[in-house]
Design brief:
The complex is a heterodimer of chains A (501) and B (550).
Chain A (H helix, E strand, L loop, with lengths): L2 H17 L5 H22 L8 E9 L4 E7 L4 H19 L6 H20 L3 H10 L1 H11 L4 H34 L7 H5 L5 H18 L9 H7 L2 H26 L1 H6 L1 H21 L3 H20 L4 H31 L12 H4 L1 H14 L6 H16 L1 H26 L14 H19 L2 H33 L1
Helix pairs in contact in A: 1-2, 1-4, 2-3, 2-4, 3-4, 3-11, 3-15, 3-20, 4-5, 4-6, 4-11, 5-7, 6-7, 7-9, 7-10, 9-11, 11-14, 11-15, 11-21, 13-14, 13-19, 14-15, 14-18, 14-19, 15-17, 15-18, 15-20, 15-21, 17-19, 17-20, 18-19
Chain B lengths: L1 H6 L9 H20 L5 H28 L11 E2 L8 E2 L2 H21 L3 H6 L1 H19 L4 H19 L6 H32 L4 H14 L6 H18 L7 H8 L2 H26 L4 H24 L4 H22 L2 H31 L12 H4 L1 H15 L5 H15 L3 H27 L8 H4 L6 H4 L11 H13 L6 H19 L2 H13 L5
Parallel strand pairs in B: 1-2
The chains are: A mainly alpha (501), B mainly alpha (550).
């Protein structure tokens, strides 16, 4: 079984659903998404530990004139993320399938296309292919926000798409330049396969501007602070299942892009801009934390906490230390697993508070829906990185890595850990305890919500007891990905120390 | 008999008839269609004439494919068609020319299908309308395969004059007449400028033949002689201006939105795709072959123009409410993109331009077919606001429109992405990274208007057509109401009656040929976006046809 089946199965299911009779559309999609999850798990089971290299490689020429390969593969960097993607999409689609949707055929088609594109972006081992999937990913979300969103949906979706595509177009130019310049400087034929590009280093001056283009695209997608203009409207308008997968995995593609592409291909520039990136991440942590603490909207608390968490991940990656990067990778997994159920919980809470997502309208739900509150508590504790949770391990490793690289930044970043406790507990307390909201209905969790939240909570618990599950697979690959940049950072750091002496 | 005997001694030009066959088919087809159009019965004029036109295009297409695969072997001496051993011929039916001819034929077929049951051919005569279309394609073929200043000029006139008439073919609508007149005036200015430039180049180099001009330009450049002179510079500049009028390249594009808006939509579609392709082919032929030696002279000029075009086209399209105007401006921007491939002047650049031309054809024809279909149904078919709710109303039209827009915006999974990718890589490898950045910035601006169309189709509720009564039925109820619609603006009472027939018959499949065109080109946009290899083969063959490239 090849990876092609994994990445194209959701799209095939989406097309099938578009042709299915109307009452069956949701069920077809749900079954298809579970099948995709099965395929993803089969890859996880067959994944061999202790290898840094790619496994399950598919390598075909896609466009020979341009040296673009259709190359897919799994290694420690992406295997867990692929499974995470399959889990979150199945959960979201199952959640959807138990509800009625307007124009269901288009809805499930776009969902399938989104899953295919995200899986493709994670599996792609060719720079051009990655860029193609990265851009393609956005299109279904454009439709999902615009057609099924709430509030000012057209404005929100336009903002979302223009922000992120502007980044993507810069990345496209940078990616093409990477391939063309690498081939030109080394007098080889054009080849966009990442493995080939890794062997053809670029001159430092080119690395710098190319790095900035990639970083811009990724930072917009996550988003980190100066590039977050689309965030509020976008997250507020997205339908709940879409926002769960968007925050859960789509934003991770950007963070993953740093590890997969930027660090190995542009090690000099990564080291050169290390401080800049760390500072951006630091500012975002503080901003995200403050915003999450002050916003009156429950959904936005989760959205801003997402910013803070992704900033932590960026921080870990740009520590340029294997420890930090591994923590970042683990944290990607953890954050995906907490943010998606949090959105579902917010939706469930809002449904009990007369449809309002304002914290002021919630409150006291714990006494009306204790099971929901219990699940919410587990997820909240995981979000604030309670010792014992896998998130704690992730954040600890990130901060350790940053401490090894730039200790001052790590000290300030600790504030973010404290802040996480503040906003996560505020969300839980104001939504589920305190004074009972004016319109809070007394209703226990319905099956669709249980189906969406419970499995993920289960996985959170498993990971809490056994975080090594995520770490063991990724270690050799992370080391290999970070090594060149770490070396460059060392090389850049040395002369300064000499000069100081 | 005496006359025949007398001519026996005259040695005529050697003509490779096989290579010439596509052109002959087009002209013969045009004449036959013209004559058949004179017949009295309406059924013949309305059904047989378009069918014959499509047939003529198909035969021409078949001839082109046949010649493409059996490359002609010419003889030495004066000949009409260049081949091996026949160096200086006025026309070259090489693979670049043949591929573009196929493109023109496809655009011609699409335009004919779109004009089926339209107002324009009824008002101007079916035979004349179709014949002019065929003659225009003939002119484009001459233009795209010209190897000589004279044939170049002949080609541009042959293609333009039928288009002037076709633009004005809705003779009872003021807008159409205005469009035809405007195009005539502006086109004549362009032609005059061009012929002046051609004259100067001829004066400087002493030849009308591209190959000889090329030699003269490159040698004199090496020798540092008089040819690096103001004369060549002015000549090349005027030629650029002349071509720029045809390709609607800024700042010579002002006519484009007006003419596109006024002309009958099938003709707009034809002009937007085929004429643009022909003009860019001329750019390729003249600048990348004849004037390649003087690249240092014209490249900075053309690069500036291309950058301006990209910005002006994209910014101009942002505020448009008429779809045809918007596509006109978008065409200006896209011409700028394609021009960048010419500027690079390498094999890669030529490949990129040819590839993008093919992509551009598919991406543009689908939306135009949708506009034509909408114009049949509602008075505001050309307007963006009229598209509201199309996704719910007519998914078979909404999807092609969406795909076309996403393709033009350069979204992956469509041929537009591949085209832009190839262009940018040609630019970067040709040391024009700054132009690649301009292209990328242009694409970003373009998202503003392409996505607005998509948003209107899928995310806006349908607008009530005429009376508020219709709005009570909400979204999908537009279908049954079609019979009551006001027909296309400005049509005569007879035309109104005629128009109501098919409209009332069945709303869903009233115009299967339009849905066919839209779906076929949208499918091509997606298919070649995923499997672009055949197009790359074609493009590289075309680039190989131009000798002397890096």
């Amino acid at each position: 079984m090849t990876l092609s089946i994994l990445i194209w199965l959701p799209l095939a299911v989406g097309l099938l659903a578009a042709l299915a009779p109307r009452p069956l559309v949701g069920q077809v999609s749900a079954v298809g998404s579970l099948a995709t999850l099965g395929v993803a798990i089969s890859f996880l089971v067959r994944f061999k530990l202790g290898h840094a290299g790619l496994q399950f490689v598919t390598d075909k020429m896609w466009i020979s004139a341009l040296g673009i390969h259709y190359k897919l593969g799994l290694d420690g960097l992406n295997v867990a993320l692929v499974v995470l993607t399959a889990i979150l999409f199945s959960v979201s689609i199952v959640w959807c399938a138990m509800r009625e949707w307007d124009r269901p055929r288009s809805f499930y088609f776009h969902f399938g296309l989104a899953e295919s594109a995200v899986l493709g972006a994670f599996c792609a081992q060719d720079l051009a292919l990655f860029v193609a999937f990265f851009d393609l990913m956005l299109i279904p979300f454009y439709f999902m926000v615009g057609m099924w969103g709430s509030g000012e949906r057209v404005r929100a979706t336009t903002k979302l798409v223009i922000y992120t595509l502007v980044g993507s177009f810069f990345m496209l130019a940078a990616a093409i330049a990477t391939g063309v310049l690498a081939a030109g400087d080394n007098h080889t034929s054009l080849n966009f396969a990442l493995s080939a590009l890794r062997g053809l280093p670029l001159p430092h001056a080119s690395q710098d501007w190319i790095f900035l283009c990639f970083a811009f695209a990724f930072l917009v997608k996550m988003p980190l602070v100066p590039f977050h203009g689309w965030l509020v409207d976008g997250y507020k308008s997205m339908p709940i299942p879409a926002v769960a997968v968007f925050s859960g995995v789509v934003s991770k593609v950007a963070a993953y892009g740093f590890l997969r592409i930027v660090l190995p291909l542009f090690p000099y520039a990564s080291a050169h801009f290390q401080t800049l990136m760390l500072l951006i991440a630091l500012v975002s942590i503080i901003w995200g934390t403050l915003a999450a603490f002050t916003t009156p909207d429950a959904r936005l608390v989760v959205a801003y906490s997402s910013v803070a968490q992704l900033s932590f991940i960026t921080l870990g990656i740009f520590s340029l230390r294997p420890t930090g990067a591994q923590g970042a990778l683990l944290q990607m997994l953890n954050h995906g697993l907490v943010t998606a159920p949090l959105f579902f919980i917010v939706a469930a809470a809002a449904a009990r508070a007369g449809g309002s997502e304002l914290l002021a309208d919630m409150g006291g739900i714990a006494f009306r829906a204790p099971v929901l509150a219990a699940l919410a508590l587990i997820v909240t504790l995981a979000t604030l990185a309670m010792p014992g949770s896998s998130n704690f391990v992730g954040e600890f490793m990130i901060l350790l890595g940053v401490f090894q690289a730039k200790s001052a930044i790590s000290v300030i970043a600790f504030v973010g850990v404290v802040g996480a406790a503040v906003y996560a507990l505020r969300l839980f307390i104001t939504a589920f305890h305190n004074r009972t909201g004016p319109n809070v209905a007394s209703r226990e969790l319905a099956l669709p919500d249980v189906a969406a939240i419970a499995p993920i909570v289960l996985i959170i618990l498993v990971l809490a007891f056994y975080p090594q599950f995520g770490l063991r697979r990724s270690e050799p690959s992370v080391r290999a990905a970070v090594a060149p940049a770490q070396f460059q950072a060392g090389a850049l750091g040395t002369p300064r120390r000499v000069a100081l002496r | 008999m005496n006359v025949l005997a007398a001519t026996h001694h005259i040695v005529g030009p050697y003509i490779e008839w096989r290579a010439f066959s596509p052109l002959i088919v087009l002209v013969a087809g045009g004449l036959i269609v013209l004559l058949v159009g004179l017949l009295r019965p309406a059924a013949i004029r309305e059904q047989i004439v378009p069918a014959l036109t499509v047939l003529a295009f198909l035969v021409a297409l078949a001839a082109e494919i046949w010649v493409y695969h059996h490359h002609p072997r010419g003889k030495a001496g004066f000949c009409l068609i260049a081949g091996p051993g026949c160096s200086s011929a006025p026309l070259a039916m090489d693979r670049l020319a043949l591929e573009l001819d196929m493109l023109f034929a496809v655009a011609g077929i699409a335009a004919t299908l779109m004009s089926w049951r339209a107002v324009a051919p009824r008002e101007s005569g079916h035979g004349e309308y179709s014949a002019l279309l065929l003659f225009s394609v003939f002119g484009m073929s001459v233009f795209a395969s010209s190897q000589n200043l004279i044939t170049l000029f002949l080609g541009i006139e042959l293609l333009s004059i039928p288009l002037y008439i076709l633009c004005a073919s809705e003779t009872r609508r003021e807008g159409s007449l205005e469009s035809g007149l405007k195009y005539l005036v502006v086109g004549s200015v362009g032609s005059a400028t061009l012929v002046y430039g051609l004259g100067l180049v001829y004066g400087a180099t002493g030849s009308t033949d591209f190959a000889t001009i090329g030699n003269a330009l490159s040698q004199s450049k090496l020798a540092g002689g008089s040819l690096g002179s103001p004369m060549v510079f002015t000549g090349l500049g005027l030629i650029i201006v002349g071509f720029a009028f045809k390709a609607s390249v800024a700042p010579f594009h002002q006519w484009t939105p007006d003419v596109y808006e006024g002309a009958p939509t099938p003709i707009t579609a034809f002009m937007a795709t085929a004429t643009k392709a022909a003009a860019l082919a001329a750019f390729l032929r003249f600048f990348d072959v004849a004037a390649i030696g003087a690249q240092n002279t014209w490249a900075p000029l053309l690069a500036t123009i291309a950058a301006i075009t990209i910005v002006v086209g994209n910014v101009g399209a942002l505020g448009q409410s008429s779809l045809k105007r918007m596509l006109g401006y978008s065409g200006v921007a896209q011409a700028g993109y394609m021009l960048t491939g010419v500027i690079v002047g390498t094999r890669l650049g030529v490949q990129a331009t040819v590839l993008y031309l093919m992509a551009y054809l598919a991406m543009n024809l689908a939306p135009f077919a949708v506009i034509v279909a909408e114009e049949h149904e509602r008075p505001d078919g050309d307007y963006l606001s009229g598209l509201a709710g199309l996704g719910a109303r007519r998914p078979w039209l909404a999807w092609p429109m969406t795909i076309g827009m996403l393709g033009l915006a350069g979204i992956p999974g469509t041929i537009g992405f591949i085209g832009k990718f190839q262009l940018i890589s040609a630019l970067v490898s040709g040391d024009y990274t700054w132009l690649a950045i301009v292209l990328v910035i242009g694409s970003m601006i373009s998202l503003g208007y392409y996505l607005r169309v998509v948003a209107t189709i899928w995310m806006r509720p349908p607008v009530a057509l005429t009376a508020p009564v219709a709005s009570a039925g909400a979204g999908p109820a537009t279908g049954p109401g079609t019979g009551e619609l006001a027909p296309i603006a400005g049509a005569s009472p007879e035309a109104d009656e005629w128009e109501e027939g098919p409209g009332a018959a069945g709303a869903g499949l009233a115009h299967p040929q339009l849905i066919f065109v839209a779906v076929a080109f949208a499918a091509a946009t997606i298919f070649f976006g995923i499997f672009p290899a055949p197009l790359f083969h074609l493009a590289s063959h075309a680039a190989n046809a131009l000798t002397g490239l890096l």
